[in-house]
Specification:
The chain contains six helices and four strands, in the order βαβααβαβαα. It has helices at 16-31, 55-63, 78-83, 92-102, 126-129, 132-153; strands spanning 4-10, 37-43, 86-89, 110-112. The radius of gyration is 14 Å and the shape is globular. The two termini are 13 Å apart. Belongs to the low molecular weight phosphotyrosine protein phosphatase family. It holds the Pfam family LMWPc.
Amino acid sequence: MRKIKILFICHGNICRSTMAQYVLQHMVEQEGIAWQFYIDSAATSYEEIGNPVHPGTRNKLNLEGIYCGNHRARRMTKQDYEYFDYIIGMDTANKKNIMRIIGRDKDNKVYKLLTFANDSADIADPWYTGNFDITYSDVVRGCRGFLEYLQQKS
């Protein structure tokens, strides 16, 4: 069986997209279906490239009992569009910047995470808000909705 490949995207790839990466990884491990997925994350900017997961994200995940690996920020490439099945941004600006990188979404792979929770809102960037709890709550809602979406689809 072919793995479902998911790429989470935010501006710098040190807070929200890495949080979503590890939250979804934790969820599929808990469900016993991790073998069905390849989950990664990337940035739309060059600002944080090579930097580790933000300490606030790492701390919040640790508090929730979620393993946080040693992901290093990388920038999304046009080639990622061909490789991944789902490219999921955290906010409207991310989605716009994803489109700048890929050109066009001919295969309808680009989404905003909270869309899967029937919510059009953006996930707030804790880099600016300092509130990793609210971001975590939204990421969990979006990831749960995404897994439900995949279950309904299959």
